[in-house]
C-alpha cells in the first residue's frame, strides 16, 4: 500500500511537467548556410514543430554570433525573387513550419567572427508569449550538406 501511495504521489508530481512539454515548441535540423569568409549576411533554416493546442508566433531571434537576425520570406513576384521581412513566424497548433531555402528563413547579419562548416551557432527564438527556445544550429555547406559529407569515388 505504501508503494502504491508513493507511485501516485510521484505520478502527480510528474503530470504537470508532461503537460508543459506537450505544449512546447520543438526544433529539428537547425542549420546555417556557410558563406565565404567575408560574408556579411548568412541564412538559417530549421523545422519548427508545435505540439500545442494554440498557434505559436516567433517574433524575434537573437544570436551571440551575429549583430542582428531578421525573419524573412523569399517569394517570386512578377518574375522577380524578393525577400520580404516578416513580423513573426507562425507555427500552427499541432503543425509545423519549415524554414527552407526559397521560403521562410532567418537572415543573419554581420557575423562577429568568420564561420566555417561544422561550427555551432547559438540561436534564441523568442515567442509572442515571452518564452525563449534556445537552439544550436550547425554551419553547413550550401544545400545543407555537413562539412564532412563528401562523396568518395572508388575505382
TrEMBL record:
Residues in the signal sequence: 1-22
Q: Pfam families this protein is in? A: PCuAC (PF04314)
Going by the entry's taxonomy, the superkingdom of the source organism is recorded as: Bacteria
- Record's keyword terms, sorted: Signal
Query: What's this protein's name?
Result: Copper chaperone PCu(A)C
Native species of this protein?
Thiohalobacter thiocyanaticus
